[in-house]
Amino acid sequence: MPDATLSTVRNAARLLKAFLTREEELGVAELSRRLGLGKSTVHRLLTTLLDEGMVEQDRGTGRYRLGIVMFELGEAVRLRMDLHGAAGAVLVRLREQTGESVQVGVPDGDDVVYLERLDSAHSLRLFGDPGRRVPLYCTSSGKVLLAFREEPERVAYLARVQLTPLTRHTIVDPSRLRDELSTVRTRGWAEAINERQVGVASLAAPVRDPSGEVVAAISVNAPVTRFRGVPRRRLAQTVMDAGEAVSRRLGWAPDLAHHKES
């Protein structure tokens, strides 16, 4: 059974890749010939992909083309590649300015995933690998990503997610978290002190795409002892400036963009 499932997945992937041609639309017979699969198999695969929005069917010709979901997936990949290029030099400068570890995180479901990270040069520093996944509610980056979502999405998140205490400082009261997210939206940055791990603090600011939508967060992370020794307002402004710098590199123009804030 696992082999059959893998074969079906492989055939679905092959079918989608068959659209990587100059032809915008393909029919069942043509796909069957190209893939070496029976027409009934191709039709079943297309029916499933159609239900998932990965392909669309022209009702006039009966032929198929890639669906909007594939475009959205492509845009997600493009954004992450663009982020890599846009954030690199800014992260280097932010680390130089603060002397601490810096990173860029993006939302993935109910988590934040860190795409880029530069570690501090201090002998006492925080280690973390790119690709690390942590809950949104207990990190400064996650709070930024939550705070700038549309209100219905924030409400749904708070109703859906169990706020599990990772330390005694983790915010587990939905009302308190809701209030904090409101504050983050107003002032433009978030912090988390001892919330995910005792002894660790971070401060994050939003990164926007050309439309003004918050698509990532840039943050500074440090041991709490050093974090508390830096004037909070100055550090927040430094991180917000870095977030704006990455946003501008992505094409955001704050004087033209309409922020998607409710």
Please provide a written account of the structure.
The chain is built from nine helices and eight strands. The protein has helices at 2-17, 28-35, 39-51, 68-98, 140-147, 151-160, 174-187, 224-227, 232-250, and strands at 55-57, 64-66, 101-108, 111-118, 133-135, 190-193, 200-208, 214-223. Strands 5-4-3-8-7-6 form a six-stranded antiparallel β-sheet, sandwiched between helices. A two-stranded antiparallel sheet has the order 1-2. α5 crosses α7 (174-187). The protein is elongated and about 70 Å long. The chain is 47% helix and 18% strand. By secondary structure, the protein is of the alpha+beta class. Mean pLDDT is 87; it is low at 123-127 and 258-262. The chain has two domains: 2-66, Orthogonal Bundle (Arc Repressor Mutant, subunit A), CATH 1.10.10; 75-250, 2-Layer Sandwich (Beta-Lactamase), CATH 3.30.450.40.
